[in-house]
């Protein structure tokens, strides 16, 4: 079974040679474009590459074109230009072959409030011509189990919390084994507990080998659960890659953020850090922070950019008592601001 890389796994560098071959992509679009009536470009020349086995975050402020893209991928609306492949097949042409392998949760599940959770799933399953009625009870039972709703299965759906309704929608998407799950804003409107539940579920599904493509306008959500992300703004793709590589976009070749040293020997630490080309030094109580130089320092013999480990060794060597040492990672918010020059301030 395919295991996804750990969320935020570091190490990979963005380069064309690291791109997976086309057959290893769960979703691929070329120049995908949608102009709604009136000519406004909701999606503008999108080239998306979603590796199989990834948890791929499709990130952008409200109105940046995420839902429109998902609707095109699922064959719900036609593209104005460009092409899309899902699980290696052209969409919408191959929809009949592809869509049974895709579970989708778009704009919230359509549930009957007067039916129990179990009966809602029963209805979904019965509407699937490929689903064997003889094994329905078992399928519905294991889908409920999977999303943690077995105990609440007999309750009417209208009595469910928003988080439970989302999980029931996911259960409907999971009635059949899926290669790809497409979730449009799966945690929208959920409280922190509900969000955690959905994130846990997404991680479990990914660990089973399902590719998960989820859209969100919540940067920290994407950072917590996704291995890869694409960032959209005003219908255009700003960047895509592993979450670690996207951070490195902002942080330079080594992906290191601001350095923080906790020490009782602040003055000595500042002197050593300065000697090693660390800039922007600030001292607050027993914490010294600064920025690692992007390239090699001016010191004779230095050829490569400074590694945090070297700085730590130099401090210790100079007799500085280092109680804690670390570097921050850039957030996706940093990436967005860096690449667009705009803030990412959408209403949560
Ligand atoms: N049916 C439609 N007719 C005309 N314009 C539309 C339609 N649907 C979306 N748009 C416009 O297209 C742009 C992209 O919208 P879309 O819903 O795809 O963005 P989004 O990133 O999913 O945002 P949200 O999270 O708010 O749905 C927006 O400017 C929106 O107003």
Question: TL;DR of this structure?
Answer:
The chain has eleven helices and 15 strands. The chain has helices at residues 66-73, 95-98, 117-126, 136-146, 162-173, 192-207, 219-225, 243-251, 266-275, 308-317, 332-340, and strands at 25-35, 41-46, 49-51, 55-59, 81-86, 89-91, 102-105, 180-184, 211-216, 228-233, 236-242, 259-262, 279-284, 287-291, 324-327.
Please name the defining characteristics of this protein.
348 residues; alpha/beta; Rossmann fold; Alpha-Beta Plaits; 2 domains; five-stranded antiparallel beta sheet; 11 helices; disordered N terminus; binds adenosine-5'-triphosphate; ATP binding; ABC_transporter-like_ATP-bd; P-loop_NTPase; ABC transporter ATP-binding protein; AAA+_ATPase
């Amino acid at each position: 079974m395919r295991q996804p890389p750990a969320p935020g796994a570091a190490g990979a560098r963005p380069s064309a040679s690291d791109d997976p071959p086309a057959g290893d992509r769960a979703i691929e679009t070329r120049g995908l474009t949608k102009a709604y009536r009136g000519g406004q470009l909701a999606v503008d020349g999108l080239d998306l590459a979603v590796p199989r086995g990834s948890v791929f975050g499709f990130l952008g402020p409200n109105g940046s074109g995420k839902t429109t893209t998902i609707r095109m991928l699922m064959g719900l609306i036609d593209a104005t230009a460009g092409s899309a492949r899902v699980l290696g097949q052209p969409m919408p042409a191959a929809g009949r072959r592809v869509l049974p392998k895709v579970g989708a949760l778009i704009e919230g599940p359509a549930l009957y409030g007067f039916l129990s959770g179990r009966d809602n799933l029963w209805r979904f399953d019965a509407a699937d011509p490929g689903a064997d009625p003889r094994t329905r009870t078992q399928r519905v039972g294991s889908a409920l189990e999977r999303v943690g709703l077995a105990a609440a299965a007999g309750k009417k759906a209208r009595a469910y919390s928003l988080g439970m309704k989302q999980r029931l929608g996911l259960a409907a998407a999971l009635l059949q084994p899926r290669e790809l799950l497409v979730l449009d804003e799966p945690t929208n409107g959920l409280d922190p507990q509900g969000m955690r539940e959905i994130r846990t579920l997404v991680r479990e599904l990914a660990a089973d080998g399902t590719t998960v493509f989820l859209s969100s306008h919540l940067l920290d959500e994407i950072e917590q659960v996704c291995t890869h992300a694409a960032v959209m703004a005003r219908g255009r793709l700003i960047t895509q890659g592993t979450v670690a590589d996207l951070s490195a976009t902002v942080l330079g070749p080594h992906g290191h953020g601001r350095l923080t040293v906790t020490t009782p020997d602040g003055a000595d630490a500042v002197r050593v850090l300065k000697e090693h080309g660390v800039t922007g030094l600030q001292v607050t109580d027993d914490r010294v922070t600064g920025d690692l130089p992007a390239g090699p320092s001016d010191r004779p013999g230095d050829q490569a950019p400074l590694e945090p480990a070297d700085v730590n060794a130099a401090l210790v060597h100079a007799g500085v008592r280092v109680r804690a040492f670390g570097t921050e990672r850039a957030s996706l918010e940093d990436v967005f601001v860096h690449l667009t020059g705009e803030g990412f301030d959408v209403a949560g």
